[in-house]
Amino acid sequence: MIPYGRHSIDEGDIAAVVDVLQSDWLTTGPTLVEFEQAVAHTVDAPEAVAVSNGTAALHCAIHAIGLQPGDEVILPPLTFVATANAIVMCGGVPVFADVDPETLLLDPQAVEEKVTPRTKAILAVDYAGQPCDYHALRHIANRHGLVLMADACHALGASLNGRPVGSLADLTIFSFHPVKAMTTGEGGMVVTQQPEYANRMRIFRNHGITTDHQERLARQTWEYQMTCLGMNYRLTDFQCALGLSQLRKLQGWVTRRQAIASQYDDAWTSIPGIHPVSVRPDVSHAYHLYVILLNEEAYGMDRATLFSLLREQGIGAQVHYIPVHLQPFYREQFGTEPGLCPHAESAYENMLSLPIYPALKNEEVDQVIGAVKGIVVSHRLIPTGVS
What domains can be seen in the chain, in order of their start residue? Predict the structure, then answer.
């Protein structure tokens, strides 16, 4: 099976982890600080807070903005459920705004229509690795006094008008899950322009306690204060060592993902009814996902059939994502229904993610392309002479 995504680990990564495993610090040690500083430098952000996973990063970021019960956060429905779940875990109300039908990114006009006196923040999602229109979203946020947040779990290594993702919003959330641009096994990070937000997140990730072990050691004291109900969201030093090693290879991996995407793009020009998600001209896309949209009328079969036939041929196609507002929990708790976000719902019915990761070989990309074309030809959807 060629999976839709896969991690890349080499001997240098393994050696970096072993070095820390043989050191005096396995958690809350110097490698954590080094990793935070390295990521902050990479994305041009003054503050970075590492945590145990991407969901924890979302939770910390929502906590940091001081969300109160009943406060609303506007977000798109085309995302993993964790984006919305973090809002609910902090007592907030997720307000789903539709996406642009071409890019599948949060539509600024739809956001504007959802703003109410209870709105606290906009939580944009850089779907598949493409940055949102942060210029338009910033204009809306400033006009209404809102916090602008970026769920950039797909977009580490991407940029907008030459500015890296991580420098475009008030808080930006990254994930280091194995299928993401780089990995720490599990892990996440929030970068921010505001030291106050960073301080709140550091306390929150450590049970709500204002000092960590290193700080108490330096002060030669056992005393500590818990000032809020926090979580244990700490990231280990050996995971941070893996992250530092992976970070050095990030740009090369993003470049490889872009090359694979270009190879795919070229292939679909000869197949009616199959086209990739549109890419805005002012972005450098990180391509965590490569998503095609299918026109059933043009190719004559439903998405489920193509999905199943590709899987039978060892192609690990996937679907990202079932719109969050259609999940039973949100329908029952918040009264969301089909029709709320028609562009997102239509896209979901017709989307398919194809394999993309740095170690994917050109011949494997050709295998994926050949499988898609072979299925289409076998169903007499395009002329047999199409190459």
Answer: 11-247 (3.40.640.10), 250-378 (3.90.1150.10)
